[in-house]
Design brief:
Length: about 350
């Protein structure tokens, strides 16, 4: 009986000792744990969250997970669309039920994170200065002198508030949502964007696609969307762009002349076209077929630049969707150029 009591007492002593040692060890471990870093509310993501004019951007950053990128210590220059920018594409009032996929939104905001802290005001005057994006491609910054002001644009969009300082970089506030550059040339863009399937097929049929793959020159492509090709593509007998079969049956030489009339050399985002109209006495672009297209801008409005071919009776607008989501079809960067979706066919 006494032996059993001694054994029980010994076990109780050992158990108590173990618990005490475990507790002490636990205390030691807690003391060894590093204190969590204080939250730096001056980082890009937090500045966006704290600004009521950037509320939609803050929601999209959270939805897509890009908020993690712009709240860590890595330095970025973030192209920050304000709330009015999202309203232009129908993603403002009804967010997040505007019809845009999470992947679409994520692609644009990941692209908007440019590598490094770049003060746009420190860049020299010049057009299409490339800056590397976190998505592996580039954005294009232009700076112009107009009267006594310096205008800064990126991918054709006006920078409304430049160089907002953050502890991990800069915010560049824009009035539009930038399209991401995802392809190394305009040919790859046309082949991969299903809105331009008919135009891409016509470019292949005409033999122009290889030229658009070139890395030696830059191009601006005025590309009618599929719905436009189906509506206006019956140009004349033997030149019909309304279906794949009719395009494959078209005369390649006539097809090439028509498509060349939709392409000019140089990278002309809409801002550069507008600057050309303000600074040049000639409001025309010379296209690849040697003929000219008249360019006009009404000076206000969204994507208000128009194009008129020599055979057109009325101007051709930048294409605009009339059902949500209202995708912007202007200013698509693509490595060796830029693509603008248009709502008509330019006739030589």
């Amino acid at each position: 009986m006494h032996c059993e009591q001694k054994n029980i007492s010994l076990r109780a002593f050992l158990l108590t000792a173990c618990l005490l040692l475990t507790g002490l060890a636990g205390c030691d471990n807690k003391e060894d744990e590093p204190m969590p870093e204080p939250v730096d509310r001056n980082r890009i993501g937090y500045i966006i969250q704290d600004n009521f004019t950037l509320s939609v951007c803050a929601k999209v950053l959270t939805l897509t997970g890009v908020i993690k990128k712009v709240t860590d210590s890595t330095r970025y220059t973030f192209l920050t669309p304000n709330d009015k920018a999202f309203e232009l594409i129908g993603a403002g009032t009804y967010f997040p039920y505007a019809g845009f996929t999470e992947a679409w939104l994520s692609g644009r905001l990941n692209y908007a994170a440019l590598k490094g802290a770049v003060a746009f005001r420190d860049l020299p005057l010049g057009v299409n200065q490339p800056l590397p994006s976190a998505n592996g491609f580039r954005a294009y910054v232009s700076r112009y002198r107009r009267n006594n002001d310096t205008i800064t644009t990126v991918n054709g969009m006006r920078v409304l508030q430049a160089d907002v300082k953050a502890s991990n970089g800069f915010l560049q506030v824009t009035g539009e949502v930038a399209h991401s550059e995802n392809y190394g040339n305009v040919a790859l863009f046309l082949l991969n964007d299903t809105s331009y399937t008919l135009f891409a097929l016509a470019a292949e049929r005409s033999g122009l696609m290889q030229q658009l793959r070139s890395g030696e020159k830059t191009f601006t492509v005025l590309a009618p969307l599929n719905s436009v090709m189906r509506t206006y593509g019956a140009i004349r007998p033997g030149l019909n762009l309304t279906s794949p079969d009719s395009i494959l049956a078209a005369d390649p030489t006539a097809l090439a002349n028509l498509l060349q009339y939709h392409i000019t050399e140089g990278r002309y985002f809409l801002d550069r076209l507008q600057d050309h109209l303000l600074t040049s006495p000639d409001p025309h672009l010379t296209m690849l077929n040697g003929q000219q297209v008249l360019v006009r801008d009404n000076g206000s409005g969204y994507n208000a630049v128009t194009f008129t071919g020599e055979g057109n009776s009325s101007p051709v607008n930048i294409f605009r969707y009339f059902t949500s989501p209202y995708y912007n079809t202007a200013n698509y960067p693509a490595g060796n150029g830029v693509v603008h979706g248009i709502g008509g066919i330019l006739l030589p």
